[in-house]
Amino acid sequence: MARPPAPSRPLYLGPRIKRLRRELGLTQQAMAEEMGVSPSYIALIERNQRPLTADLLLRLAATYRLDMADLAAQERDDHARRLAEALRDPLFAEIDLPALEVADVATSYPGITEALLRLHGAHARASQALAEGREAHAPTPASDPQGEARRFLAARGHWFATLEAEAEALASEIEAIGPATSDRPAEWLRTRGVRVRAMPASVMMGALSRYDRHNEQLLLDESLGPQRRLWQIGLHLAYTSLRTTIAQIVRGESFASATAAQLVRRALAERGAAAILMPYDRFARAAEAQAYDLDSLAGLFALEWVHVARRLATLAKPGQEGVPFFQVEVDNAGNVVRRMDGAGFPFAVQGGSCPLWSLHSAMQRPGEMLCQWLEMPHGERFFSIARTFDSPAGPGLPPIRRTLALVCAAQHAERLVYARAIAAEPTPVGTTCRLCQRAQCLSRTQPPLGREILPDDYRRLAVPFVFSES
């Protein structure tokens, strides 16, 4: 392989090399051993105290199978350019800031440069908020990347035909390996030269899975059960085999922040993994045949029920739609961890949802499937199922417990085995207390918008507030 010509100026890529090492899950010692240099040399490169030589750039590209142009891309890591742009702010107009000094700071002190850039970004967002007459914490596309990612997915109806088609084709290849077992995806990887190995936590360094590109190994935490191991293999397949398709979808949209783009990329990888392990046509047929029984479907596809529930919320193939679901996951404090809008279910963007919804009592009954008919103030009825699930947190740490709820409109509930088992006596609920006009609700925490409360000097009722008639 011909060596590239010597660069016209030293190539300092410390932050990029550090980020690459962390993405690979490597210590400085491990990267140094694979590159044939000392750990101290890697540390100096990451601190921009040594330039990246042409020889080492070639070794990096060969060892970790990287595109050299991508690795050395200046538009991503040119701290000097980004810092110079920030320092052109009128805030610094009276300060003499020679370009050479700016370049020296960015080259020699990448950590301080990144800190200054973050501070300037926060200042710019707060200034913009004040100029627009709103509070600095009010959500905008740039300050609410999760909301932007969620809207992107919802605007497309949670359906990505090219991703599903490629995943289905890959699933067919995997199924051709041999008898139906949960080991087939790992066996398929072995035919491509990638070994799947279970490793102790001391090797995994907090990761559930790690792809060792140098040795062509997919390393999995040995404490993971078979269902979680299979899911991690599915994610690896999505990030590698569906990489081009995912990148094309993300590049086709202009996001307000890199974080929003990464969240969309992560969501698409999870969709791809689900589509590989639960191919659409077979899964949709099984869902109808099993009347959307989560445990039965989990057994059929050798996955955890939570992955099945998330897959059910993406059955939007034109002409072969499943039950349209609204899906939400919350933590112990009621914070929304993830949400997929659908089914016409009203959900409060700001503030908590109705405390009468079983979503909020599931934590008191871990592992139990809570089924409930819901009736909104205007008479719309929905059916909800809620259940807790545990995610691994790491060696020696208790699992992270969350609650997942699936909600569908009443007209679709008859297709669910859960709705057939309970009487259709709905619980009166609201979107949130501020939007609910039910005056007799004992669980109310705030008065609704547009209603004045009466004094309670002489009479105190069980309800938190008594409202005037006007």
Model description:
By secondary structure, the protein is an alpha+beta fold. It folds into 4 domains: 14-77, lambda repressor-like DNA-binding domains (434 Repressor (Amino-terminal Domain), Orthogonal Bundle); 80-131; 155-308, Orthogonal Bundle (Arc Repressor Mutant, subunit A), CATH 1.10.10; 326-432, Beta-Lactamase (2-Layer Sandwich). The protein has 20 helices and 9 strands. The chain has helices at 14-24, 28-35, 39-46, 54-63, 68-71, 74-77, 79-87, 99-108, 110-131, 145-155, 161-175, 184-191, 201-204, 226-241, 243-251, 258-277, 280-289, 294-301, 305-312, 417-420; strands at residues 195-199, 209-212, 217-221, 326-330, 336-340, 370-375, 381-391, 400-409, 427-428. The strands form 2 sheets. It has a 6-stranded mixed beta sheet with strand order 5-4-8-7-6-9. The chain has a 3-stranded mixed beta sheet with strand order 1-3-2. Strand 4 and strand 5 form a beta hairpin. Helix 7 packs parallel to helix 9 (110-131). The protein is globular.
